[in-house]
Amino acid sequence: MKILTYMLLSLTTSIVMAFEFPKADNLWLREAPPTARMLAAYATIENNTSEDLRLVGAYAPDFGMAEIHKTIEVNGLLKMREQKELALPAESTIVMQPGGLHIMLMMPKAKFKAGDEARICLIYQDTKGKEHVQHLDFPVKKQ
Ligand SMILES: [Cu+2]
């Protein structure tokens, strides 16, 4: 009986310890002309877990390359800078939107128009340095 109790306890512990992903909402990929070589996607990522995380990158099977970018103004010009990692502490939110943070998708292997969906995977790192990949489908929208 003691052994059974122990087994149940360790089972419960492993369930509690399972990695919990942040909540990704408002996913969308902005429709672009068919000739566009770069597309931007946006999301609101809410870390409503008790674990401090970092967003360390993205990849998308339908694109040659994906990076997290931030649009910034330098001497009156808008420029984009890659964000190698973004802090996402417990109870915090990353808001991506036009003119700010976005997922930059380069070298598209397919054409995307409004109504389509694109798979984009976000890579998080926990405090132990372990990476966790969240697979998301982004609807393509005109605006
Ligand atoms: Cu960009």
> In CATH's first tier, which class applies?
Mainly Beta
Largest sheet properties = 10 strands, mixed
**Rg (CA only):** 18 Å
Q: If classified by CATH, what would the architecture be?
A: Sandwich
Number of extended strands: 10
- Residues in helix, %: 10-25%
Ligands, deduplicated: copper (II) ion
The class by helix and strand makeup works out as mainly beta
Task: Report the CATH topology name.
Answer: Immunoglobulin-like
Number of helices, counting only DSSP H or I runs of 4 residues or more: 1
- Low-pLDDT sequence parts: none
Per DSSP, what share of the residues sits in E-state strands of 2 or more residues?
A: over 45%
Compact description:
Helices cover 11% and strands 55% of the residues.
Please tell me about this protein's structure.
The protein is mainly beta and 143 residues long. It has a single domain (21-141), classed as Immunoglobulin-like (Sandwich). Helix content is 11%, strand content 55%. The chain has 1 helix and 10 strands, in the order αββββββββββ. Strands 1, 2, 3, 4, 5, 6, 7, 8, 9 and 10 form a 10-stranded mixed sheet that branches. The chain starts with a helix and ends with a strand. The chain binds copper (II) ion. Copper (II) ion (CU) is lined by residues 69, 80, 102, 104. The site of copper (II) ion (CU) has 4 residues, from β8.
